[in-house]
Specification:
With 269 residues, the chain is an alpha/beta fold. It is 30% helix and 28% strand. The strands form two sheets. A six-stranded mixed β-sheet has the order 6-7-8-3-9-10, with helices on both faces. A four-stranded antiparallel β-sheet has the order 2-1-4-5, covered by helices on one side. The protein starts with 6 loop residues before the first strand and ends with a helix. The site of adenosine-5'-triphosphate has 12 residues, from helix 1.
Length: 269
């Protein structure tokens, strides 16, 4: 198992005692976790964190809270150096049913991401940035097409790149592996690894019930589950995949030790 040299420094995001209630139904209870900047010598290593839990446990609600889209009943999500409360639009989101603008081409959809970043670029620079990303991520031949002319997996990749182009360092993904075949899952994993190493501050937060694929990508995973005697889901376990020697290894799913961990977690969610 690979042991890596790394440090964890500045606090990037903090979920502090998040509780969510709908009426008298408690959905989330005291969810706490922190994401710190990981640094590796001579590498621009971003962060990949997973929140793993069974269907219906409250992952999508937590996703919306982390993105600033809904307010928790109590608790806060704070980000960046000054640890201010997250505002909508500060975190890139790829929702469970991600949407593209269907009446615009893939090129125009990517341009929306770039426009959002507020970067002042000439038409020529814009073209070169978008074509660069498209080529890096295997979408060059699709730029003139409309979303409906792409497969679900291709549309999802466009959606991920659109968020990367916004310049948001935090990118939240809700169930990024669902509805994809095995080959497409591998492509998404490759894409997300690339995104997480483009910039050392890039931070992906994956919300998923797909234990194997979520763990394979992550440096840290939090299990979201119900504790006996507690109403609402909370973080029941933290898995440090770096310490376990499972992080940053493209082929980790082939490791028997890794698969043992996956099997253990199945009983915990
Ligand atoms: N607006 C709402 N009002 C009341 N209850 C809600 C509302 N939205 C969601 N819920 C409830 O919150 C709980 C958690 O839902 P959530 O969508 O977060 O689950 P999930 O973990 O994302 O599930 P899945 O893996 O199937 O996507 C569910 O019991 C759901 O019925
Ligand atoms: Mg969900």
């Amino acid at each position: 198992m690979a042991q890596h040299v790394y440090t964890k420094d500045a606090l990037l995001l903090k979920a502090d005692n998040i509780c969510l209630k709908y009426g008298d139904k408690q959905i989330l209870s005291d969810v706490n976790f922190e994401i710190h900047n990981i640094q590796r010598p001579n590498m621009s290593q971003g962060q990949v964190v997973s929140l793993i839990g069974r269907s219906g446990v409250g992952k999508t609600q937590l996703f919306k809270i982390l993105a600033g889209l809904i307010k928790p009943t109590s608790g806060t999500v704070t980000i960046d150096e000054d640890q201010h409360v997250v505002r909508p639009g500060e975190v890139g989101i790829i929702p469970q049913n991600y949407i593209l603008f269907n009446h615009r081409t893939i090129y125009q959809n990517l341009k929306i991401g770039l426009d959002f970043s507020g970067q002042k670029v000439s038409d020529e620079q814009e073209k070169s940035i978008i074509e660069d990303y498209a080529s890096k991520f295997g979408l060059s031949e699709h730029l003139k097409k409309y979303p409906m002319q792409l497969s679900g997996g291709q549309r999802q990749r466009v959606s991920i790149i659109q968020q990367v182009l916004t310049g948001n360092k935090f990118i939240l993904l809700d169930e990024p592996f669902s509805g994809l075949d095995i080959l497409m899952v591998d492509k998404v994993i490759d894409l997300l690894i690339q995104v997480s190493t483009i910039n050392e501050f890039n931070t992906l937060i994956i919300v998923s019930h797909d234990i194997e694929n979520a763990l394979a990508l992550s440096d840290t995973a939090y299990i979201l589950a119900n504790k006996e005697g507690v109403a609402g889901a909370t973080v029941t376990e933290t898995i440090d995949l770096i310490q376990l020697g499972f992080a940053w290894d493209r082929d980790i799913r082939q490791s028997a030790h890794f698969q043992e961990l996956v099997a253990q977690i199945k009983f915990k969610i």
